[in-house]
Structures
1.
Amino acid sequence: MKRPWQIALAFALALAVLLAAMGWISREVLRLDRAQAEAKRLALREENVRLALWRMDSAVAPLLARENARPYFVYASFYLPELPYAEMLKDVSTHQRVYAHLPSPILVQTSPYIRLHFQIGPDGRLTSPQVPPPSEAAGGYALPKYVSAKTIAAARARLARLEKIVGREALETALAVRPEPMPPMAAAAQADLQQEIQDPSQAPQQERPQTQARRNVQEWQARYQQMTMMHRDINDQIAGNLYAFGAVGASVMRPVWVGGELLLVRWARIDGADHMQGVWLAWPAIRRWLLDGAADLVPQADLAPITDGPGEAHARRLAALPVRLVPGKVPADAVDGLSPVVLSLVVAWACVLAGAAAVGVLLMGAVALSERRGDFVSAVTHELRTPLTTFRMYSEMLAEDMVADPDKRRRYLTTLCAEAERLTHMVENVLAYARLERGRASDEAERLTLADLVGRVRDRLEHRASGTGMELVVEVPEEAGSVAVWARVSAVEQILYNLVDNACKYAASASDRRIHLTASLAAGGTVLTVRDYGRGISRAEARRLFRPFSKSAREAATSAPGVGLGLALARRLARDMGGDLVFDRLDAEGASFTLQLLSA
């Protein structure tokens, strides 16, 4: 049989290998889970970017459409209605024509997203319909009927600021850069995207970011085409209304960055001369407006100008304006949390640790039980050796008539009877414990009075005490003796006999050689107490009093006879009847044990 330290070492090595394997598996699983979480985070960010771009383009589209739809003549502070509609009014009599000056809608309408409308003539002069010429303002066209002097002064200040930023040459340079259509994706990219749409599992993991980028490019193409179609419709409408006159017309507004400011600029032909008409947009307000509208999708996003040409950053740029979306970080709580993989890993670790602990406890219990059984075998062997030697020696001497003295022969026979009783008691204890281990009782419990119970076991107890020169003192008060109890007489007899036997062995050298058996009433029923006046039991010994097979061969050789099974058997028998056996005295004046019985 292996030694306990060898078993513990083998278990520790096996546990170390298991934990190392689980640690490696956990590390790989967590790495893959983090990669998957990061992929989810990126996918969520790209999806939110796509939705945010659509939302921003949809929000700014009406503003651009409204500015594109403005006819060329509203870029004058006041205009005569017969000028643009002369052809339409040619059949109307002269006295029916309206010659009154009408204010431009731009003069009287304001928007938080537009700073100023402006126009640059062929001579390069910068004007604004929101800043009427002094003659028109002084003539009463503008003041105070349509617009206040304060508003005109603010517009004039903005116009002065704009003069320092833009000029006809700078705008012509900006308009000279033609929008470049998005290049079509390569055939391989188209095939990859189509394959992922049909079967996402077939797309390689390392190609997912590129595929997502291609999808973003397609989204930009769709939004760009939508804006282009809107501009084309507006252009066709303008051409239908104005180009029919031949001398007038306007192109579609184009957003451009000039001097760090966002402008909408177009060409307008008036009376055969080319003018540049534009809108100075309030980019900070527009930026805040667009970001607030998509804050639920990209709360940490920002919009950055695109100044290196229309082909830059197609995947995340707006189709309506030359700006790109910087998405920022996705909120951690959007994808974080206890994933099923991590939860499964935690459960697996809990199961492994619980299993290892259970195996360790069972192994320790098995080793301890094996050691106790080994000690029991050694103790039994030691206990059997002495009586068997005595039996052999005395029986041989008696059989060969080597003992002639009758008194000596009688002493030898008495010794043989005592050793036989000792062996019988030891065998009875072992057999009774084995029956309890198998869950079988020797007899059924019966109802009888406490006095009757004590009387049925008294003779054997007195015989055991008198055999060692001890005196058994039985005290059964009348009020306690008349109480009925449920008990198995054989079990109670074996319990009390073990207690008296221990008192005879361990208190034999005491000056007071009495053993008290007392019956009394208690809160939970009736009790029988066995007390001696020997050396007592220490606290260290008391902790293992009721542990079976607790006496080793060395202890059996240096202590009173016994194998360390009597008290463990006595407690098991008591609890099997529904009662209990407890040790209730810790001092130097003997030992006291209490048997608790159930009242009937």
2.
Amino acid sequence: MADFKLEKHDDGVAVLTWDAAGKSMNVMTREAFEQVDGMIDDVLSDDAVKGLVITSGKKDFAGGMDLNVLAKIREEAGDDPARALFDFTMEGHRILRKIERAGMDDKNKGGKPIACALPGTSAGIGTEIALACHRRFMADTKAKIGLPEIMVGLFPGAGGTTRYSRMVGAMAASPVLLEGKMLDPKKAKGASLVDEVVPADELLDRARAWVLGASDADIVKPWDQKGWKMPGGEPYHPSGFMTFVGASAMVNGKTKGVYPAAKALLSVVYEGALVPFDTALRIEARWFVSVLMNPSSSAMIRSLFLNKQALEKGANRPDAPDQRVRKVGVMGAGMMGAGIAYVSALAGIEVVLIDQKQEAADKGRSHAEGILDTGISRKKVTDEKKAEVLGRITATTDYDALRGCDLIVEAVFEDTGIKAEVTKAVEAVVDADCIFATNTSTLPIGDLAQASQRPEQFIGIHFFSPVDKMNLVEIIKGEKTGPRAVAKALDYVRQIRKTPIVVNDARFFYANRCIIPYINEGVRMVKEGVEPALIENAAKLLGFPLGPLQLIDETSIDLGVKIAKATRAAMGEAYPDEAVDEVLFWMADRDRLGRKSNAGFYSYDDKGKRQGLWDGLSEKYPAADAQPELTRVQHRLMMAQVLEAVRAFEDGVLEDIREGDVGAILGWGFAPWSGGPFSWLDVVGADRAVEICDALTAEEGPRFETPALLREMAEAGQTFYARYGDGAAAEAA
């Protein structure tokens, strides 16, 4: 079935409607692009047609390009994927240029006006199509428009970079191109992404009226006219030169030089501004293909788009009937429970929020109210929406209110005894088929499930804080957890619009298992006399959003102390982190508990703003005379996490490397440019990773010993995604 439909009306205006069959959002495919090409030819060759309106048959305009298309082109291209990708990209430029020129001759005469009518959200190729049109109309709704490709390791490569930067200038284009910002209609008009914002019920009529009244001058783009100059100054002009110097500094400051798409985008804008428009499009295509062929970009696309999307659609969901949640009981109204209640109510689920005291339960409900009030102040939430969401949350101390709940999410204090009491009290009230989920970040699910009469319906759901902002949810299967409980958890996470990963029960599960060694390695280096600034900057130059010392300040030092004590009690003489404990316990004894106490590895002002690393740290742990090379520090920080991810997969805690990569990026910000720990290993190569491990083991000890699986893959010349990319588990190899 065709994704586009062309209708010609008696007034001479044709309407091209994008309505991809069987999809909630329009995404562009190769076949659809071919349809557009033929339909544009039809419009331009028909003398009865005066002009064209391009619109959508759905509530939104488009979600972008189907990135599976790019992967398929590479697969089909054989030995020359770059040529195939370049030809495909240039074919897209040809079609959009045909829309832009619309049949005009060399003197810019004789063309047919083409307007774009955007009923809702437009991203990626949808926005690039709109930019090629002569006039853009957008409905005045809560929709957004933008070019967010940079967020998945690309840049707008279908003319969007060249067109938009030429429209508004390099500096003005930066928020849209380099930050991937999606703008509401009014802001989009101010940024020249759209020309007119109109009432939704007038959208098509206004676009048609413009088409019928447009003149030749109305449809000629500025860069197709004589004397055009780049807004903000040409690159070789003093003002333009300073713009590009500033843009280059901004890009490198924000990306630390590890994101190839950002640097390529800046090159496209700079080089393209020096040449005629059609040559600039070829430059854009070359850089776009260069990014597509870069291992980093390929890994980002795979993890942040393809794998993330697959997991959200239930790639690892057990075969079970629909388990969507109707009513959820949230036990514990602290920050975590309150956040869970909010995201559940926002998703349309009835919520019962329970705490020991009514005052505490009400405070948890007021947390949701505070988030909604912030949304109202930013004009993102209406009073009606606030009332609707809050109306779904019942804050109470009465367990009888849990009757009818089909899911319980327990988020009480991290104590096995307290959680056991709550589990028994809840199961005495709820129906026999209710699924019970415990929100825990460290306590083994198998231990907690012992308090349950129905361990097959007991599961772990680990939310990350703050719940309303963090997109990852870790679902933990206990030894006796049944498939319906897993399906219930996955369906619930999908309802609240977050990304799930499913792991097996083990100490610290997956995310914390990997992030704790990263923090510990940073603290261990402080004890050794490595400059704290070197540790933090080494991490940031790897693309980590937070260095290990800042991260422990954010999560709190006393939490680190608590985890250390519990781990040492569980491991006994095998406990490996005595050196780390010395530093953490010393900090905690001085009430330097992190950001929450305005005192940690960093100093803070009265408002909680970081002021730099704390001077007292160097007094207790002075810097050694000989400092390690930057790359050695980076290898320690990177391998501390990566090796733990491999061990988790080797041990069967992690069953799918896709979940390992997506979970690492979304859960603790693991170097997004790398695509995640398994993608990073594939980029550097297993043999090189083994070299690094062997060198670190010789100097730093057994915590860096190469896992048997990694050494085996190095010897066989294998990559993780070639061997396990289809979701196969390690033990099945």
3.
Amino acid sequence: MTVELQVVHTRPDLAAVFAVRHQVFSEEEGRLSPRSGAVIFDAFDTFDATTNVLARVGQEPAGVVRVSVDGAQGLPLDAHYDLTLLRDACRDADGRQRPTGCVTMLGVRRAFRHVPGVVQGLLRAARTQLDLLGVEDLIVIVNPDIAKLMRSLGLRPLGQPITCGRVGQELIAMHCSLGDIRVPPIPVSRGAELGSLVLLGPGEVLHDVGDPAGPWHVVLEGRLSLELRDGRGQPASLASVGPGAIVGQRGEGVLLHRIVAEGPVLLERVDHPTLLATAGGSAKELDSLLNGLGCHTRAAAEGALRAPPEGRGGLSLFHGFLEARLLDALGQLGLFERLAAGELIDVSVLVERLGVRADLAPAVAAYLRTRLGGDVGASLATDELTRFGHEAGFVQWLVGGYGPVLQELPALLKGEASYAEDARRNDGAMAAASASIGQHFTDPALWQIIEDYGPERILDVGCGDASRLVALLSKAPSRAGVGVDLSAACVASASAKVERSGLQDRIEIHQACGLEWLEQTDGEPIDLVICCGMFHDLLNRPGAAQRFLSELRRVLGPGRLVVLQDQLRQRQGTQSASWVAGFELIHALMGQQLFSADIYRRVIADAGLTLVDERETDIPENRIFVART
């Protein structure tokens, strides 16, 4: 049997985690009281410092584990125990509190306890996440029956057993340095994105004769035997592949016959990415839960909410931080769509339509009432509510997309951490936010350009969640498109959106570099290339922007269009200083800068393209450049 490990970041997966907990801890072990709805969760599942991992055998949820990092929110153990002794064990000689994490809710359903790899896989995923989050010490409180297992992994008891009335037995507090724990991490780089994991035992078959085309996998550990056959079914070759190899079902005359594990093998399934290795919390939700988000920002663009003037004091910052976290969390539950449609929100809507807990909704409503006015915004004019809904993408961009980066802000400011290595944005949240911003602020100008030039086959480089392609092709039945993105999270979102839209026959999605895809494809020619919101990344790498455009010109051939939409740097004396300065600050944290329109024009000319059009979007200092190869 294969074991698949996945860090959950979607509502159905989180619901499965809570259901497995209930089955293991309430129904099978009787350690916790049954809960209404047959799920077990708590407030710590909503925090950005928490990660839940789900193990599946086949399609069946088999086991779960939760990883939490100590911080301002505390640890799940704090809800039941005094952790003073455990935290003291995680201090340096000079008293510095080392980054500490804990593992809780480790449970495997009885029906799957005989399956090799479930417990091992959950523990390895937990260890990997702790590594990626910079944890130095691990603390746990366990039942005596698994204390022996914990000892074998390197943990040691600390203090006397703890009597816990909640579970009706004594428990054992344990601690170790993460460097001493005898659980090998999954080999991923800090801040990387990793797809679902699959563990194969010796002799297990990944693909066999007659299997339909399935997902592709990257070998992380171990070796696989591959037997290839040609289109007539005759053996063509026999190979053995190891770490780094990509395997899967092939078409076009070469059919993959069998893929068999030579020994224990760890694979990454690359068609269904998760956020296993994202430093910083993933968005999680289940009906009555709000999302855990990292944020240090104000709620929306200036003037959108007509908040009471409070100057720049601590109280203003207090409300800015709380508003941003609350509004973005409610946005994940559907608030922004309702506001954009002009719908008035009250307590009943919060509970019945957004799924806010009934006991929390009055406090949420009261706070929003004081900030927005009326009954949760009811006294504001409809057009202002709609405007706020349209601008909500900026909140999502900063809170959801750059929340993990801003969590590391003190270390980034002091030079003790660096972007990408120690802090990385959430690409999935970025894609969703960019789609929302584009829909209301940049896409109208882009649509007009495309209608003016009438291309039939479009390539979107950095396609995000494919919102642009879906919208473009929905307007023109004869049009086809290709989306490429380096982010596995974005490609997963894009593929799902294309499938939901029913446009699979006209939109291709690839995880790739746009230029590499162009160089390797032998399909229909591309009439127009879109590159939205990412050209400044190339400009920050010396020569990269010119090489990108020159290669586009070479590969596309003459007469094709290249459309660049991007954010420019602040022009002195303009009214957009506040917005652009904030955008520039975020990019400065990543070691980047923004550029003037003159730089774009010069790079386009140096690459041998001809600038044929220039248009403003509805975002300050945001512009579209149209060039012809």
4.
Amino acid sequence: MKFNLRIVCVAVLFLRIGLHAQDGAMDSLKLALKNAKHDTIRCHILNVMIEAESDDNIWPLYNEQLKKLSEQNLITSKNNKVLYKFYLRVFGSTLNNIGYLAQVNGDLPRAIEYLDKSMKIQEEIGDKAGYAQSLNNIGIVYHTQGNISKELECFLNSVMISHEVGDKVSEANGINNIGAIYKSMGDIPKALDYYRQSLKLLEELGDKKGVAQAINNIALIYDDLGDFNKGMEYHLKSLKIREEISHKKGIAESLNNIGYMYFTKGDSEKAMEYYLRALKIYEDVKSNSGISSMYGNIGSVYERKGDFSSALQYYEKNIKIDEEIGDKHGVSVMLKRMSSSYFHLKDYNKALQLALRSMKISQELGYPESLKSGANILYKIYKAKGDSKNAFLNYKLFNRMQDSLNNQEIQKASIRSQFKIEYDRKEKQARLEQEKKDLISAEEKQKQIMIRNSFIGGFSMVLILAIVILKGFIQNKKKNKVIEAQKLLVEMKQKEIVDSIYYAQRIQKALMPNEKYFEKTLNKLRIKD
């Protein structure tokens, strides 16, 4: 998958939210990129543009721009640890994207080289989520190579790390890929189990694009089982979701798969209808790999109809694109199909020439299945040409490759058993670690509850005590007021009594003259007499 930086500033976030809501979203992103004031903002915007662009001819240009921007800033930001780490992470993501594109185009050595470089950077800066994504991508490379042991190791570690850091999207992708391994091993129940686990995670996340892909994978299981009705049910579910979210490449994929179902059922007309619809969409989004696949499938319909000339026209279109994008396996397959068509046209020399070219590529890639089919067509051509020696040699090669495939099935069964033991062990370890975390979390929660309860209890006691003190204070205040009132009343009464005594004394003094006054008065009366 293309890498998502995960560090999104507010301005870019709004652009990303509106990405599917308006047709001019990419124009808005380009304008925002032009007006950005800082290179960190430019990095964010370019990352969104890479994620939003489905054309494999266009988004790599944005990725190259992002790569150059990060490289320039890595030189100038060495003294700023935060910025340096940011640009190193961006640079690592661009390497991941280059590796992803190489894998899509079938250039596996280049894919491994760049994904490995990306992983080293992610490990250096402690970007576990990015490391898990790169592991997932390199696991897909090993799947293409048929290296099951390496593939399993990558997907297992990717799932474990994604689970550890809480990256459910990467975890779901990894689980999905484990399901694909079980499917390739023929363990359908296990494959379905993992696909459904992945589906559940993606539904919880509300990732409709991922949900559609998971449902598509389940549909392919039923295709392999020959359950047309069940397979069609799931393909239509996937198609409906993809149409709802306007995921054009996804819509084309679903249409192609539905077309292939009709093809295997023998309904060439229906198959052609869906193939043509898918081709139109792939052309609209400029997906070379999608266009190439449709040319090959349309050619197969014509070949079945016996129209080998038309089949060859489409096969030649297919092989031209595969050569351009470096898809060696695709080239090998198309050469065999073209050889088969020329064989039916009885042009044995042309058929032989193409079959030998195909066999050479198959030997380089080392795929037993491809070698087996190549030997089979060569056996038929040499037999038709009357070349018994080469016919016999290719017949022997055919049988040897058949034995090799049988041995691979035995090996797959052994690996499947080892994988189950290893996965169960890691799953148990993860479960124990999670239980330990849950226990620590529960203990911490209990401690918090105790602290909270102690606080509440202590606070309640303080509150009750405060209420009691306040109540006592209010009562004392009331008592003091009564005492004060009583005291005032007593004082008033005392004052009244004292005042009464003073008043009586004044009256007595006023009404009772002294002896001198009486004597003086009596003397005056005597003189008058």
